[in-house]
Amino acid sequence: MILDQSELAQVLVAPALTIERLLDTAMALVGSGLDAERCSLMLLLPETGELVIDKARGLAESVVSCARVKLGEGVAGWVARNRTPILADSAHAFPELERRYCASYATQSFVSVPIVAKEDLVGVLNAADKRNGGAFSVLDLANMEQFALLVAELVDVRAALEAIEQKSPVDLLTGFGNRQYFGTRLAQEMARARRYDQQLTLLLVEIDHGNELASSLGSEFSDELALTVGNRLQRAIRRCDVIMRYGPHAFALILPQTGDGVAERAAERLIDEVNTQPLTERADLSPAPALRIGISSYPSLALDSEQLINQAQAALDLAKTRPAQPISIWRQLTDQLDEAQRLGVPYLVDPSEMITADLAQLVPLDFARRRCCVPVGYERGKLTVAVVDATDGYLLSELATVTHLSIHPVISGQATIMMALNRMSELLRKPAAADVVIRKTPGRGRELKIVLKPLSSEASLANLMGQVADACGAPGVRIKTLDTCAIVASASALGCSRLLKTLRRIDGLLIESIKAEDNERNQPGDE
């Protein structure tokens, strides 16, 4: 028997939702059973060898979204690598282990156990901060190990369902086409629009604050919210329109034979339809869920599928920075060039080329994303910032307030600013950066000086310097001098090329600049 998409979704969606709810329930039981204020489920990413937080209770969103722990690193990393639980009356009982984010914990006692399924490491289960202020007991450890066995089974079943979903074009929750199917269907619709010389519009619709709500209220609430929005969107579109699940809290709508002008009115109708009734019975939610929509059209704005997606995503990102304007259409480059010329303000084609680790520290990333701006220069107390609208006095005032600097605006495109913000985020995630200076030596040899510098207060250069030194031990490379933050090595031309490639692959190290001193030519470190 062959199932169609809707039937396949009905077969798969119930067990998928049940697993997520059971995992949420298991985490709630860990918290209540151990009387723990904070607990987390960290899963191993096999491709990177890192632990990331999959479920958590009592942890800040910034910790949940950013925490990445290598095997052997910190308490959770040690437990994962050794597959051995830790029960600590006090963090001081394990002085050789770094307890990450320890400043945010109320007590020194914690318990951490490995999660193993079919002899394979799955992750680590952690609990901390007893509500009564006491220490965890041996009985708590035994209960935690039982919870770990349950979680291992649930994660194993979820992985099997995800494997099925990856082979299916159907989203398990909504029954719509999934992200994998989206690319195929968009290419088909784009080919049809080209063949018959028709217009085509893409709408990316996102539930604003979806991640925050999922983190605070759990995946069951998040799924119900996404299902409600999806069903209302489907009722509001035409039969010829296509709706797909684009992300956990996002949908993609393909509107054939529709230009950007008509699409804006269609987006307004979508928001009206979705808001006919409250999205949730919870009237106390803050922030309240709301829709944001980014729009681009073929052929008036985009010339191919990739441009269409990038422009709609950039427009969506901009819409999320403007609470009073939930709908945003991709602004054409010519519009901004004209505006820059009219205002006498410089236009910056690619702000990502201007970002450095030092500049990334000057503007908070969450503010920069929310207000669609990126720092591109600094001199004598004056910060140059790329913005979409240089006449936005409120934004410039906010920037001056958060940076305590004088602000000089330049204009750039919203898509290029968003790409620059991704670069800025990458800079802030890396604990250390390296500047590389290359000098020619007699013959065909090279001398390389590699200088490391920390990008965060938590950065430890010792491990990274060890990896750099190991890279310098490759054939054709010889270390001449070595200290705590710099290495000088000689290399053949081929050895130099191989060394640079190896340095770029070191996790946690950003190659910020490469300078050839013989001709003073600078190259971006990520080229």
Key features of this structure:
6-stranded antiparallel beta sheet; 6-stranded mixed beta sheet; 20 strands; 42% helix; disordered N terminus
Shape: globular
Number of strands: 20
Rg calc: 26 Å
The level of helicity is: 40-55%
Describe this structure in words.
The protein contains 16 helices and 20 strands. The strands form 4 sheets. It has a 6-stranded antiparallel β-sheet with strand order 3-2-1-6-5-4, with helices on both faces. It is 42% helix and 27% strand.
What secondary-structure arrangement, pairings included, does this model have?
Elements: H1 5-33, E1 36-45, E2 50-57, H2 61-66, E3 68-70, H3 74-82, E4 86-88, E5 110-117, E6 120-130, H4 138-167, H5 179-195, E7 200-208, H6 210-217, H7 219-236, E8 242-247, E9 250-256, H8 260-274, E10 290-298, H9 305-319, E11 327-329, H10 333-343, H11 357-360, H12 365-371, E12 373-379, E13 382-387, H13 393-403, E14 406-411, H14 414-429, E15 432-440, E16 445-454, H15 461-471, E17 477-482, E18 486-492, H16 493-504, E19 509-516, E20 521-524
Parallel strand pairs: 10-11, 13-14, 15-19
Antiparallel strand pairs: 1-2, 1-6, 2-3, 4-5, 5-6, 7-9, 7-10, 8-9, 12-13, 15-16, 16-18, 17-18, 19-20
Helix pairs in contact: 1-4, 6-7, 7-8, 9-14
What's the quick description here?
The chain contains 16 helices and 20 strands.
